[in-house]
Design a protein that fits this description.
Blueprint: H1 2-5, E1 12-17, E2 20-25, E3 30-35, E4 40-46, H2 56-67
Antiparallel strand pairs: 1-2, 2-3, 3-4
């Protein structure tokens, strides 16, 4: 998770949601949700698109939104 937090590249998408950062690696389906101000990783996992109803990055963004309430 820590090494993925520092990764960059064309295959990495990231978006801030309040104090949280959501990163998604489209090559490996890895997802990280971390709190930027505390430099704390809240969750890190590899998504299985076949098992989700919405696309993996959107699911992580929705999760981060619940943490900001």
């Amino acid at each position: 998770a820590k090494s993925f937090a520092g990764e960059t590249g064309e295959h990495i998408q990231q978006q801030a949601v309040g104090k949280f950062l959501v990163k998604f690696n489209s090559n490996t389906q890895e997802i990280l949700v971390g709190r930027m101000d505390l430099r704390e990783i809240r969750t890190f996992y590899r998504a299985n698109p076949a098992m989700t109803k919405i696309n993996p990055p959107q699911g992580a963004l929705d999760f981060a939104a619940t943490l900001t309430k």
